[in-house]
Design brief:
The complex is a heterodimer of chains A (252) and B (156).
Chain A lengths: L3 H9 L2 H33 L13 H28 L2 H32 L8 H21 L4 H15 L2 H11 L19 H33 L4 H12 L1
Chain B lengths: L2 H31 L6 H5 L9 E7 L5 E2 L5 E8 L2 E8 L11 E9 L2 E10 L7 H26 L1
Parallel strand pairs in B: 4-6
Antiparallel strand pairs in B: 1-3, 1-5, 2-3, 3-4, 5-6
Chain lengths: 252, 156
C-alpha cells in the first residue's frame, strides 16, 4: 500500500515544511518560466509565419490565449483550495487560495486588455457585450470581489474563510466562460486548441503558444511560492519556526 | 472523517449543488433570448420584429459590395444558409471586411433593407500561414475538378 503520497501531502501542509519547500521550488520555477517565456516570445513574434487572413496582428494570440487560460486555471486552483479550506480548515489551503486571487486577477486583466487591442484591429471594436467578453469580465469582478472580501476583515483567517466561500461559488462561472462561444452566438470565435479533435492552428504557430502556456504556469508557481511564504511568515509570526528564521536572518 | 468536518462537507456540497443548479437554469433560460445576433433567415422569419435595433450576422455575398463614388456609403448583401438581406452602411469598414467574410452589423430595418450603424468583422478560430492556405485552396480546387471528372465518367 503506497501511503507515502497522502503522508507526504499531509507533511507538506504544515507551514514550516511548505515554507522550505516553496523556497527551494521558487528559483527553479522562475528561471524556467523566464527561459521558456523568452523562447515562446521569439518563436511567436519572429519564427512563426504571418496568418493568412490576419497577417501579423494575430501574434497577440501568444499573450492573449495563455493569459486567458491562466485566468481560468488559477480560479480553478483557488476554488479547490477554498473547498479544502472550508471543509478541513487547513491553514495552508486558505493561504494558497488568497495568494492566488491577485495573480489570477492580473492574468484576467491582461486577457481583457490584449483582447481589446486585438478586437479593435480585427473586429473593428474595443469592446462588445457578447457572452464570452461579458463572462470574462465577470471572472475579473469575481477575483476582485474575493480580494476585497478577504481584506475587509480584521481577522485574516476569518476573512480568508469568508472570501473562500465567494471563490467557491464563483467556480460556476468557469464552464460559462469556456462554453460561452458554443452556447451562444458570439462575436468572439470558438476555441482553436481542442482537447478532443484536431486543433485549427498550424504546427509552426502552435508550439510557441504551448511553450508560453507552460511558461505562464511556471510563473504562477513561482509567484504563488513567494506570496505564500510571505503570508505564512506573517500569519505564524511569534511561532518557534518563524522566530528561528528571523534569528538566523539577524545573525546572517 | 470526524463529524464536524462531515457536517461542513455536507453544507458546502449542498450550497455548491444549489448554485450549480441555479446557474444551469439561468444559462438555459438565457439561451432562448440572449443571442448576440440574428441571421438573415431568422430576420425574414420575423424573429427580430420585437427589436427596434438588433445585430445582423452572416457572410458578405461575393460580388455584392458596391461603394459609392462620392461618399463612404457602401451597400452589400449578407447571406446565411437560408436567406439574404441587403445592408446599407455609411462609414469606415474594418480591415477584415471583404467578400465571403463573416460580419456582424448593428442597425435597424428600413423596409426590406437593413440600415447599419456599425459593421464588425468576425473571424474564425483557424490560424495558418498564407502558403498553407494557398496550397489547401489549390488541393481543394483540384478535388473539385476530379469530382467533376468522375461525374462525367459516370454519365458516360
Amino acid at each position: 500500500m503506497a501511503n507515502w503520497i497522502p503522508l507526504w501531502l499531509h507533511k507538506l501542509s504544515s507551514p514550516p515544511v511548505f515554507y522550505r519547500f516553496a523556497g527551494t521550488l521558487r528559483p527553479w520555477a522562475i528561471a524556467l518560466a523566464l527561459v521558456l517565456g523568452l523562447v515562446a516570445l521569439y518563436g511567436g513574434l519572429v519564427l512563426a509565419p504571418p496568418d493568412y487572413q490576419q497577417g501579423d496582428d494575430y501574434r497577440i494570440i501568444f499573450i492573449h490565449v495563455p493569459c486567458a487560460w491562466m485566468g481560468l486555471f488559477i480560479y480553478g486552483v483557488m476554488g479547490v483550495a477554498a473547498f479544502i479550506a472550508l471543509v478541513w480548515r487547513i491553514k495552508l489551503a486558505e493561504v494558497v487560495a488568497m495568494a492566488s486571487a491577485p495573480i489570477g486577477a492580473a492574468f484576467t486583466f491582461i486577457t481583457l486588455v490584449t483582447g481589446s487591442l486585438w478586437g479593435i484591429r480585427m473586429w473593428g471594436t474595443w469592446w462588445t457585450w457578447d457572452a464570452r467578453l461579458t463572462s470574462e469580465l465577470v471572472l475579473l469582478f469575481l477575483y476582485l470581489g474575493v480580494i476585497a472580501l478577504y481584506h475587509s476583515f480584521e481577522d485574516r483567517r476569518q476573512g480568508a474563510r469568508t472570501a473562500a466561500f465567494l471563490a467557491l461559488i464563483g467556480v460556476v462561472n468557469l464552464p460559462i466562460v469556456h462554453f460561452s462561444v458554443v452556447w451562444w452566438n458570439t462575436l468572439h470565435q470558438g476555441s482553436t486548441i481542442k482537447l478532443l479533435g484536431p486543433s485549427t492552428i498550424a504546427p509552426s504557430m502552435v508550439w510557441p503558444l504551448l511553450t508560453m502556456v507552460v511558461a505562464t504556469k511556471l510563473y504562477y508557481v513561482a509567484s504563488l511560492c513567494s506570496r505564500v511564504r510571505a503570508d505564512l511568515l506573517s500569519l505564524e509570526a511569534g511561532k518557534d519556526w518563524v522566530r528561528q528564521i528571523a534569528e538566523n536572518e539577524v545573525r546572517g | 472523517m470526524n463529524p464536524t468536518r462531515q457536517r461542513r462537507l455536507t453544507i458546502v456540497l449542498a450550497i455548491l449543488a444549489a448554485v450549480i443548479v441555479a446557474a444551469a437554469l439561468v444559462v438555459y433560460a438565457l439561451q432562448q433570448n440572449m443571442n448576440y445576433l440574428f441571421t438573415p433567415s431568422q430576420v425574414q422569419a420575423g424573429e427580430a420584429t420585437s427589436y427596434k435595433t438588433f445585430r445582423l450576422g452572416g457572410m458578405v455575398k461575393a460580388d455584392s459590395i458596391q461603394r459609392s463614388n462620392d461618399s463612404l456609403k457602401v451597400t452589400f448583401t449578407v447571406v446565411d444558409a437560408g436567406g439574404a438581406m441587403p445592408v446599407e452602411y455609411t462609414g469606415i469598414l474594418p480591415d477584415l471586411f471583404r467578400e465571403n467574410q463573416s460580419v456582424i452589423a448593428t442597425g435597424h430595418m428600413d423596409g426590406a433593407r437593413f440600415i447599419a450603424t456599425e459593421v464588425l468583422a468576425k473571424h474564425d478560430e483557424t490560424y495558418m500561414p498564407k502558403e498553407l492556405k494557398d496550397a489547401m485552396a489549390k488541393a481543394h480546387a483540384g478535388k473539385h475538378i476530379d469530382e467533376a471528372a468522375n461525374q462525367d465518367k459516370q454519365q458516360l
